[in-house]
Structures are given as structure tokens and as C-alpha cells.
Design goal:
nine-stranded mixed β-sheet, alpha+beta, Aminopeptidase, elongated
Length: 684
């Protein structure tokens, strides 16, 4: 029977708006999510009968209701492939993206919360790495694959993911529409509206020009042994690259639902760099000049931005090909060791460590350089097992995978050190290194073990690459347990704001705001490309101290300060009062607001170090300094770089209203919103 009186539906409509915002992601072909207003009857669609069957149901519901349909569907069903007239690859999202063909009755989509779908929503394993994922989750192993990921699609209807509470209530109303009313009015309808949006057909450059979105990106930190002068030497030196991904934006935050990457990797990398530096200092060679490492240098990179350092890795690869990063040139890099997630997989692998290689088994015979072969040998001698993944499985997602994707130079020059063997231990974008499922001492012990292996492997590879034999005993290198413990306490354990001693001695303190779901936007809200965050500043400071060629006894009295005119974030420490261009101002943690809102930090120490911030950004962006805005460089847009920019507004009000329509009577209720479908792509 029809419900004609407000009292009859009062209980059903008694939940309040949560005020969450909406994030729009722009791609090279258009935008996903928040495409505009919509009004339609609620209809629960499933993928059980395939996308075509779901489309037929939506068409029938729209015909009976005399209006458009707001589809209610789980993310798994929305993005999953199914049989149908369009073939096995058809999915609801692909049919919607195909100019709505077959889905003309659908005017909007509500994604249920807590869906079990994987992250990339690719209907196929677009890379051999998919073989390493859990059963049914191979698609989640590939970051934004070209051509078939949701971020490559253009949707002309708004797609919103609901909160868990709203999902329950909306499903009840959708069921009532179908089973009690057979989609005959009166019906529950959903209405989308937003005051902060652009039309779904707007392009990325339009959104940038209207300052309605900014690039997703970040700042990586790169450091090189041998001192600042080594980068300007006439004769180039062989290089071994030690790398890890990081999500610097999530440092110092309470453990909320952020897009946090595997921070145990960057902790182990920092500890490995420290072990190498201590060994060099012990033989009177602070900063590890080339003679200490047999004629070679070691470069260390903490790579930032979205999905295991993907953007940072690709940006670094471009810089190395052009020789624009601290004088490093790609052809000089003889070996690469990436430290992946090493602290999250103890239940998966019993605390063991594994080496993964690209498209072949990890063996000296498959490596493209003697240094890379020596790297594998040193890892094996430090109790690191070769992965038992299929021989053609390839690099796991991360730095090495992103760089090899761009350039075959990296395919057979190194390995990824990981705490898991043949499969990802968790879903895509869920490798949050927290201490919930195992003991803190065990976690720290495994990270220290990985740091020791990384230090020895890097050292051995450098000695072979240099060809002269180093002055330190690589097999004696051991990570400092106390340093590892301090790093874990600072960067991995949950701390609301900067509280750890390691950070308070080095960077400006103060509590940080709640973390964003994503690794970093390139600005907030100003689109200036030189902004850094405290997480970046800490890693920069740690690496600057590690690779410093300044003897510890000579730094007393050489104090320095530097100023950030904006007062919002930390600027590059090289803009300092140090007397020499080769020096940076480290550990200037005593900061205070100055004139005009500037932030001045003092009582730092001048050290000679080759360290720099590096942009982690799509090549499609250019900064127009004259007009202070981002531009899209169309010639640099690649078909496999679908993720461009993220809105930075807090969309309030952004309303989803669920209404019962009977004649002219509207009973309205605001539903709290989660994130868009594209945010689901990035976060699940």
C-alpha cells in the first residue's frame, strides 16, 4: 500500500547528513564522479546476470517509474565484468562510460559502502604481476592500468560512494521500491546536488584554470653519497640506487583511513643508509666518498605520491634520463634495490624476507650488470630468499615496477626486497604498517633485518660497480636497532601530531590536521609547486645528515637558519644562511612566526650534503609562474597516465536527498556522502 502520511515513513527517514565532501578526479578523457545534479528512482542493480541484465532491469524500472533511475550497486558488481551482449568484458561502469549505451535510464549511481572489490577495477590482469595477488584480486595488483581502469573512463552521471549507515538505509528504500511498489509511484527517489562542481564534460585544463582541482603529486627526496661536489665531477661514477616508496602526507597522523603506503620500506631504507654511513665514518670517510665504495656512489630515494610511489618513481626516471637529478644519469645506475613492505607480512611469511625480480627468476644469469648480480648474491647471503612466484611474475607494484614500465633500462638491474612471497598480503592501497596484528618488537626486528640486508646488498653492488674494491667490509654492516626503533615509533606507530623525539629535534612541531585519504595534493589551497610538508622535511633532514661529508667534530659553531615566506609549509633547507652552496641547513627545528606570516627556523647545522627535493608529478603538468597556475602540457600526456588532479574544496553542502514522491508531496532527507567512485578506485 502507498504510504501517504509523513508519520508512516518517519522511522525510515530518521538519519541525518554527515557533511562529508566529494572529490572529483580528472583524467585525460574527462572526469569521474560529481558530474552534476541528478534525480531518479532508487533501484538496486546486481551484476549476477551480467551487465546487460542489470541494464534491462534499470530500463524497466525507469519505464515503470516514469523517471530516471539512481542505481544502487556494490562497487564489486559495478566494476566487475560479466557476460552480456557486449561480451565477457562488459561491466556496468563500462556500459555507462560508453556514452551510456544500454544504460540510458540510469541518471546516477550510489556505490554501497564496505564493498569487497579490489582497487584498480580492471576487468583483466593487465600486467603479469596480477599473478601474485590473492585469488579474485588480480586486478588490484595493477595501478591504474591503461585502457580498462575506471580512471580512464568518462562518466556523464554522478557516481557517489555512501557511508555504511547510509548504505543500509538506502538499500531498505530501494527494496521497498522494487518489492512493495514494483517501481510504480509513489517511490523513493534520490536527488544529487552540489554547489561546487563543474559539468562532467569539462576537461582537466578547464578545471585547473578555474582552480577547481590541483594535480595529485608530492615531493620525493633524493640523496647521493660522496658529497655535493661529486655531482659536478668531470668523470662520472657508477651508481647503485636504493629506493623506497613513502606517503609523507600520512606521517605524524593518527591512523585514519588514509591512502598510506608501506612505510616500513622507507624506514628500512633510512636505517640501511645509516648503517652504510656509520661504516664509512668508522674508516675516516664520512659521507662515503667514491673511494670508500670502490669508486662508486649510492643514491637513496624516498619516492612520494599515490600508489606505492608511482608518480615519484616515474618523475625520478624522467629526471635520470635527462641527468637533471643531482647530476645522476640513468646509464650510470648499475643496480637498483627497492625496499618494499617488510613489516606487514609476518603472518604471511613467518618473518622471512624475499627478493622479487622483473619478468624472470632472481638469478645472476638474468641480470644486466655484474653489480646487479652481486646485489642478489649479497641478499641471499643475508637470509633473503628468492620469491617462489612464477618466473614471469615481474616486479611487485612500487618504485621498480613504475620505472621499468617507462624504460627497459631497469628491467634486469635489480630486485625488490619484501616481507611477502608470492602474493600481496592485503588488498590494493591497504598496506598500512600498523602494529595491530603482531608485536612491536617483532615488527621492529623484521624491519631491522631488512635494513641490514639492504645495506649489505647495496654496498656489495657498489663495490662491484666501482671495480676497485671498497674500504669497508660490506658483510659486517648491521642496522642500528635503536635507530630502527626510533624510526618506527616516529613514522609507523600511531601518533596524533609530531610527538616522537626523532622529529622534534629536526623539524618544526605542532599538531597536524587530519590526514587526507590521498597521499598528497600538490597544493592546499595555493598551487605553488615549492610547498613541502613536515614529513618530507624529516626524511630530507635524515638523509642530509646521513650523506653529509662534514666530519661530526667540525660542525660545532656553524649554526644556520632558513625562512619560509609562506608560513604554511617547510621550504627547501638549501635556502638557508649556510656560507657555501654545497651546504644545507639540517635540524633547524626551533621555528617561530615572523613578519608577514613567514616562518623562520633557526639553530640548525650546516652540513655538506648532496640532497634535494624532487617533484613527484605527472609529466602532463607545467607550472605557469607568471600567472601562478597549473597548465596541461598536451604533448606530454600519455595514454597510460590517467590520474591527473584532485579537487581541493570541502563540498558543503553536497547533498544526497532521499525523498518519497507521491503527487506533490516530498519528504526529504539528507544522506551523508562518502567519496566518489574514483576515490574508491584509489583507496579500496
Amino acid at each position: 500500500a502507498a504510504l501517504a502520511h509523513p508519520a508512516d515513513v518517519g522511522e525510515l527517514m530518521a538519519f541525518a547528513a554527515t557533511g562529508n565532501g566529494c572529490t572529483r578526479w580528472a583524467t585525460r578523457t574527462g572526469e569521474v564522479g560529481c558530474a552534476g545534479d541528478a534525480l531518479g528512482a532508487l533501484a538496486r542493480l546486481t551484476g549476477a546476470g551480467g551487465a546487460t541484465a542489470a541494464a534491462e532491469k534499470a530500463e524497466a524500472a525507469a519505464r515503470a517509474a516514469g523517471t530516471g533511475v539512481i542505481a544502487v550497486v556494490s562497487a564489486e558488481e559495478f566494476f566487475a565484468a560479466g557476460a552480456g551482449s557486449k561480451g565477457a568484458s562488459a561491466s556496468l561502469v563500462s556500459m555507462l562510460a560508453d556514452s551510456g549505451r544500454g544504460m540510458e535510464g540510469v541518471v546516477g549511481v550510489l556505490i554501497e559502502a564496505d564493498s569487497a572489490a579490489s582497487g584498480a577495477y580492471s576487468p583483466a590482469a593487465a600486467a603479469p604481476q596480477g599473478a601474485l595477488a590473492h585469488e579474485g584480486q588480480s586486478a588490484s595488483y595493477v595501478w591504474n592500468p591503461a585502457g580498462d581502469g575506471a580512471l580512464e573512463m568518462r562518466l556523464e552521471v554522478p557516481v557517489i560512494q555512501m557511508t555504511p549507515h547510509d548504505t543500509t538505509e538506502v538499500l531498505r528504500r530501494a527494496a521497498w521500491n522494487e518489492h512493495e511498489r514494483a517501481f510504480e509511484p509513489p517511490l523513493y527517489q534520490a536527488s544529487f546536488s552540489s554547489d561546487a562542481r563543474t559539468d562532467g564534460t569539462s576537461g582537466t585544463e578547464d578545471a585547473l584554470g578555474q582552480r577547481q582541482c590541483v594535480p595529485v603529486g608530492g615531493h620525493s627526496i633524493v640523496a647521493v653519497t660522496g658529497g655535493a661536489e661529486a655531482q659536478h665531477a668531470t668523470e662520472r661514477s657508477p651508481v647503485v640506487l636504493l629506493a623506497a616508496s613513502m606517503d609523507a602526507r600520512s606521517f605524524f597522523y593518527t591512523q585514519v583511513d588514509t591512502g598510506a603506503g608501506p612505510r616500513s620500506g622507507v624506514v628500512a631504507m633510512l636505517a640501511a643508509a645509516d648503517a652504510l654511513a656509520r661504516a664509512c665514518a668508522a674508516v675516516g670517510k664520512p659521507g662515503c666518498p667514491v673511494e670508500a665504495l670502490g669508486g662508486a656512489r649510492v643514491a637513496m630515494a624516498a619516492l612520494d605520491a599515490e600508489a606505492w610511489g608511482h608518480l615519484g618513481a616515474r618523475s625520478l626516471g624522467r629526471a635520470l634520463r635527462g641527468g637533471a637529478q643531482l647530476g645522476l644519469v640513468e646509464e650510470d645506475v648499475h643496480a637498483l634495490l627497492e625496499v618494499g613492505s617488510v613489516g606487514t607480512s609476518q603472518t604471511q611469511a613467518g618473518g622471512e624476507l624475499f627478493a622479487h625480480c622483473s619478468l624472470s627468476e632472481c638469478s645472476a644469469a638474468t641480470m644486466a650488470s655484474p653489480a646487479a648480480a652481486e646485489l642478489l648474491k649479497a641478499l641471499n647471503e643475508t637470509d633473503v630468499r628468492d620469491s617462489s612466484a612464477p618466473a614471469d611474475a615481474g616486479f611487485p607494484p612500487g618504485v621498480a615496477m613504475a620505472m621499468a614500465h617507462d624504460d627497459g633500462h631497469w628491467l634486469h638491474r635489480g630486485a625488490v626486497l619484501s616481507g611477502w612471497d608470492t602474493r600481496l598480503p592485503v588488498n590494493y592501497m591497504s598496506q598500512r604498517d600498523v602494529l595491530a596484528s603482531y608485536s612491536e618488537p617483532d615488527f621492529k626486528a623484521l624491519v631491522a633485518k631488512a635494513a641490514t640486508a639492504a645495506a649489505r646488498g647495496t654496498c656489495a653492488a657498489a663495490a662491484v660497480a666501482g671495480g676497485a674494491g671498497g674500504e669497508i667490509d660490506c658483510k659486517s654492516l648491521v642496522a642500528d636497532d635503536a635507530y630502527v626503533s626510533a624510526l618506527v615509533d616516529c613514522l609507523v606507530a600511531a601518533h596524533p601530531g609530531i610527538q616522537c623525539e626523532l622529529a622534534t629535534k629536526r623539524v618544526w612541531g605542532g599538531n597536524s590536521a587530519t590526514a587526507s585519504r590521498y597521499s598528497q595534493q600538490q597544493s592546499w589551497p595555493d598551487a605553488a609547486p615549492d610547498m613541502k610538508r613536515r614529513g618530507h622535511a624529516l626524511v630530507y633532514d635524515l638523509l642530509a645528515t646521513t650523506v653529509s661529508t662534514t666530519p661530526s667534530a667540525s660542525v660545532e659553531g656553524k649554526r644556520c637558519n632558513w625562512t619560509d615566506p609562506s608560513g604554511r609549509h617547510l621550504q627547501a633547507q638549501s635556502d638557508s644562511s649556510c656560507p657555501l652552496p654545497s651546504q644545507v641547513c639540517a635540524s633547524a627545528a626551533q621555528c617561530a612566526p615572523g613578519e608577514g606570516g613567514a616562518l623562520t627556523c633557526s639553530n640548525g647545522t650546516c652540513v655538506d650534503a648532496a640532497v634535494a627535493y624532487a617533484p613527484a608529478l605527472s609529466a602532463a603538468y607545467e607550472w605557469d609562474a607568471e600567472r601562478s597556475r597549473w597548465l596541461v602540457n598536451a604533448s606530454a600526456v600519455r595514454p597510460d597516465e590517467g590520474l591527473f588532479c584532485e579537487t581541493y574544496w570541502s563540498v558543503d553542502p553536497f547533498a544526497l536527498q532521499v525523498v518519497l514522491v507521491q503527487g506533490s508531496s516530498w519528504l526529504a532527507l539528507g544522506c551523508g556522502l562518502g567519496v566518489t567512485a574514483a576515490a574508491t578506485v584509489a583507496a579500496l
